Here is the input.
Amino acid sequence: MKKLLKSTTEYVSTLNRRVSPSTDPHISRCVDQLKKRGFVMLDHLVGTPEFDAIKARVDQKIEQDFELQFPCLSQSKIDVDRDHDLIETNFLATNEQLSQRGLTFNRDDVTDYQQMVTDFTPSTLTVPMPSEEGFYNLWLDPVVTSVVTSYMGFVPNLTEAYIRRNFPSSFRVMNFNWHRDTNHDKYLVKAFIFFTDCDIDTGAHHYIAGSINDPRFRDKAYFSDDEINSAWPIGSDDHMISTVPAGTIIIEDTRGLHKAGIPKRGYRDLGFAIFTPPNSFVKSKPYFQIHHSTYKSLSKNQQAFITKQNLR
Ligand SMILES: O=C(O)CCC(=O)C(=O)O
Here is the structure.
């Protein structure tokens, strides 16, 4: 009954926000590609000053202001014998559970960026979405919002927004493994915003084109490279590996099989914008918060993607 109620409310709110397919030929082409292959790549921001300005802000937040989500997993604290259970389950645990094991570090443990990276060897640092107009203008870029809206058929909510910096990692932490996202069974789109040039050595994103409705690989949360490569070998048409310059955005239906590549050197910075239907999540705490003043500076079109719950 509860499920029925939820899907009815969701259906009604979706209906209220219904949109017709875009008549812009570029947007239509992108939507067609997204429908056919499960992803589309956009390059209109590559090399633009607006994008470079936001990239500089991302660096500052990570390397100087430490505006990061703490506690954060420290690879140097992992003991392969004691923590074999976590290693086997790809660290599928809450931050509290990892902290109780003594596997995390906090803001107080950090004196400078190099010390943090050397002492704690994090595999991932996460920056929560900054409440700044420039970030929202990128996350709710007009091409991205038009493609996402046209693909879904209604104006969705921006449900999650953040940036991750990934480093070389000896352990496979959650989405370094192949998986399907399960946040919503019918409507789920992510925009991945590449802040660094990316190739197979620097943490490419991997996606299996056309896998959304493929009945295989549904019986567990994560799959190994061997399992996926046996069905879609590297180099085959549907095994997509993103070799892209900074400024690229990949819009993807992540109900399809995908994984984060582990950088072999350096790091890669990736922004995440997650779009789901209105009312699909009834959460007591929103995943990001936006100041009223920032919200007011956005266009009406952009404001439509943000719920009241996210305002502070
Ligand atoms: O970081 C990536 O390339 C992929 C992230 C991912 O797997 C996810 O968001 O579900």
Q: What stands out?
A: The mean pLDDT is 93. The first helix runs from residue 2 to 16.
